Amino acid sequence: MKRVVLFYCILNSLIMAQDIQLGQSIISPDYIEVEKLKPTKNVIVIDKEHIQEKGYTSVSQVLNDIPGITVGTSAWGEIDIRGQGADQAAKNIQVMVDGAPITTLTTHPYQTNYDVIPIEQIEKIEIIPGGGSVLYGNGTSGGVINITTNLKTMNKPINKIGYEFTKDKEKKYYTNFGTKINDNLAIQLNYSKSDKDWYFIDTYSNTEYFSGGFNFKISNNQALTFKYSHFEEDGQFIKNISKSNLEEFGENYRPKYSNVTVGIDENGLKIQEKKRRYLSSDREDDTFKLSYVYQITDDFLFTIDGFSSKGYFTNNEDADNKKMEQETLGTKTKLNISYGNENSLLIGTDYFKQTANMNYFDYKLKKVSEGDTPIGNQYIDGDYIKYDGKNTYKKVPYNFNYERFVKAIYFLNSNKFGDFEFTQGARYDITDWSFDKNANDGKGKDKSHRVNQNYEVSAAYNYRDTGKIYARYERGFTGPDGIQISDKRLDENGNSIYVKTEAEDEIFDMYEIGLRDYILGSAINLTGFYTKTDNQMNRVYLNNSPKESITVNYLETERYGVEFTANQVFGKLSFEEGYTYLKGKSNYNSQGKANIGKVDWSNSGLKKVPKHMISIKADYNIIDNLTTGLIWKYTGGYNNYLKDIERDEDSLVKSHVVVDFSLRYNNPKGYSIYSGINNLFNEKYYGYVGDNFSTVIPEFGRTYYLGASYTF
Predict the structure, then answer these.
(1) What is the mean pLDDT of residues 535-559?
(2) Which residues does 254 contact at the CB level (< 8 Å), separation at least 6?
(3) Cβ atoms of residues 554 and 540 within 8 Å
């Protein structure tokens, strides 16, 4: 019903607008808010041509090739931008698909999978490293990633088929069909299927993705775009393996068999099956998006996006029983007002609700209670009911329900006076949380009403046609996630209960300076940043007991670094170099010192943040339409845990170099053939090494891939 109301409101605005006749056509970028940031921010743009030429197979693979971004280092599958580190990366990033958020409410027990969009359907990926809080709100200390699919505007329908396989690892095929029905209506349909084997034996991921939509030009100054997508994944994987098991078994490692309870019989006895403890990656998602663009006059551009997604995902050994259901429903509106010669004011609102629910049954020993009458072969043994001398059990329902409702309004003003450019922006954000938890270790429900603000100011000076320097300041916040929003405490009877946290939103101040220029045949970008928070949120146990765990603002953390990129073209040969330096540290603030102060954080640095990352890319056009490429990437070692604690797995955390080779032929008639070798020198390294328990995730060694496509 909510979806019907949402889409009705948008369609009603279209009908009302049709009475106004204007002569101009709609001319606007995909995301006007991103364009507003580019004059005083280094926004990284990766287009589909670059993605195809490098043979990338997933969003994670694309991101992991960019200095300053790591995938799977801070935790399994997590994206870390600008050194957020362990326990922080997941909540300090926003990921959008066609302008709609896909980041989940809670990373426990299941983490967000950002590879749900097939790489073949992506038009471009825009990365805002650090900040963007005025435009995007909560959780942008790390940055924002905006993925644009070929259904964003459908101005140019795509007709393409393709097939690709990676030796012994993956096979996939895809087809895109689009056409213009007439001058005002265009449609696009896409289908992708992939069967992929992971590192360990009997681990895999089989996915299917369908999307379709239309773009309808209502008039010269109005357009309506509708998009639908459906994603399914069936797979199993291994998340935890010790160093000793990895060294002994390698890729042939299999989890041991164990007894898994699948139910209880009429006598209350467990029904068990022997299973290997593989984890499931089953997933399903349906997404709808409706966008309306209205160029009211030459100086007024109005857009509204309505979006809805619903589905589930798993990350455990019991895919049928334990599913995290999730749903997002909301709207984003923007009004851009141009005034003067080169000035503009962007006013926007965000209004969306996200829910996450997991409800399942577990099995507990059946205790004697009033009204229990043992019959037949049942008898009472102490406090428990037994059957034929065996323990009896009962089904116990568990539920984890979260809801976050965000309402926000913001503005971003941009001015240009000669060679100077300025921005000023502010955002007012209201977030209403609610949770209802009934877990093995306690239960409780509560609500939390939170209000916060973001600000930014920036200035740029164009000192020559090719040269610009800029500086910016941003004040943003990161609110608690689904786990941090509730504290586990003891009631008067000594039982654990869940109540809303008393922790405050984490506030960060970010300072950034940058330079862009074209010097001696090289286009360069140089950025330096410093980010500080005095009240970082963390989870702690009270009295070293798991019966009480709470969210606290005990840490003050600073992060700073340098980002550098350069590229050159010498005839048929082109180069691109990138370097990132990341550093930071945490210490207890006054509140933390008063309450804990037992561990010295000051010399430990940030956990799981490589200090140095370097990449060098070279492309050579051998003959017309035939290009070869080489990527050399160095990732430095990092601090896996506190320096005063050593673990066996820490020896696996070391610097490594990976080299990728690619070859591509593009025929002018639409044929393309490409191949390559990833990890050319078979470097052995690890995407994630755990700290709290033995966890090692090895990365692939040398792999070969070959693909072909035809555009018609």
Answers:
(1) 88
(2) 200, 201, 202, 276
(3) yes
Helix (H) or strand (E) holding 430: strand 420-439
- Phi and psi at 156, nearest 5°, equal -125, 95
Strand-pairing partners, residue 672, are 666, 709
- Residue type, position 441, single letter: D
Nearest to 352 by CA among 169, 138, 178, 174: 138
Per-residue pLDDT at 602 exceeds 90? no
pLDDT digits (tens, 9 = 90+) for 411-441: 999 999 999 999 999 999 999 999 999 988 8
Rounded CA gap, 669 and 622, in Å? 19
Burial of 104 (0-12, 13-18, 19+ CB in 10 A): buried
Tokens 């933390």 correspond to: 592
**Cβ atoms < 10 Å from Cβ of 113:** 19
- Residue 572 structure tokens: 């048929």
pLDDT grade for 600, boundaries at 50, 70 and 90: low
Strands (E), 592-655: 612-623, 626-635
Cα–Cα distance, 171 to 531 (Å, whole number):
43
Q: pTM for the whole thing? A: 0.88
- Indicate the SS3 state at residue 420: strand
- Which DSSP symbol is given to 267? T
Contact 133, 427 (CB under 8 A): yes
What is the 3-class SS of 562-601, one letter each residue? EEEEEEEEECCEEEEEEEEEEEEEEEECHHHHHHCCCCCC
Q: Region 192-218: what's the mean pLDDT?
A: 93
- What mean pLDDT do residues 101-106 have? 78
